Structure formats: C-alpha cells, structure tokens
Amino acid sequence: MQLRIQLLLLGLLLASPTLMAAERIGLVKTYEPAATVVRQGIEVNLQIGSEIFEGDTIATDPNGAVGIIFTDGAVLTLGPSGKLIVENFLFKPDEQKVSFLSRVVKGSVAFMSGAIGRISPGSVQFKTPTATLGLRGTKILIEVE
Questions:
Q1: Which H helix or E strand runs over 13?
Q2: What is the pLDDT of residues 98-110, one digit of tens each?
Q3: Rounded to an integer, what distance in angstroms lies between the CA atom of residue 68 and that of residue 128?
Q4: CA nearest 60: which of 107, 110, 25?
Q5: Which of 3, 51, 107, 145 sits most deeply, having the most CB atoms within 10 A of its CB?
C-alpha cells in the first residue's frame, strides 16, 4: 500500500509542469571569447551547440560576442558587454501561434528575422530601457548603453 502511494506521488511530481522539460528555442553557433547564460538562477558558460530556452538571460564580457540561431531560422548576435533576456518565444506556425519578445538590457544586438518575422512581423519585439521596437523588415540593429 505504501509503495503505491510513493509511486503515485512520484508520478505526480514527474508530471508537474514546473519539472517538465522545456523546449529548446535556439542554439549557440558562435561565441568569443566568453558568453554566459543564466537559467533558473544558475550561470553557465556558453559553448558552440549550447541550447537556448525561453526565459534565458544571455550575457557577454567586454570583449565578447555570441551568435544564436533560433528554431524559426532567426539569427541574433549579441555584442560586447551585452545582456539580453529572451522573454517569450513561441513558434507553432501550424497553429498560427508565433511570437518573439526580447529585452535588451545593454549592449548591441544585430537581428535578422526568421519565419516569425515573415509570418507576423508585429510579433517580433525588442524592449529596451527607453522603448519597445517592433520588426517591420528583416534586419534590425539595437544599441543600448
């Protein structure tokens, strides 16, 4: 009887939405000399092939840069002393649900849109300390000091 209860509790715990595996939204393709991600309060050094998830905070050192390719084909480069938070990324074109929302805290960001930008340009937004920028083309460059 007690074993059944333990198994039931274990099943409920494993099925908890907070413990379910998050879906990867991008991959690091380039970095130099150092870039990090903070995910759920833990900082990790990025490497080529590192996975990016919704909610990640990506940062570079004063000489650093990181290039990321998102699952919709968008390409983002974060320059030296940069900090960017991927607040929302949803790419389900079959269900017509798409969005890309990032917060640029500091540094420079170069962005070339992917499928989300082609399907729904207004669904791609970058927040900065002073403005929210919406994508109306295919490329954007942002500088935040």
A1: helix 2-14
A2: 999 999 999 999 9
A3: 19
A4: 107
A5: 107
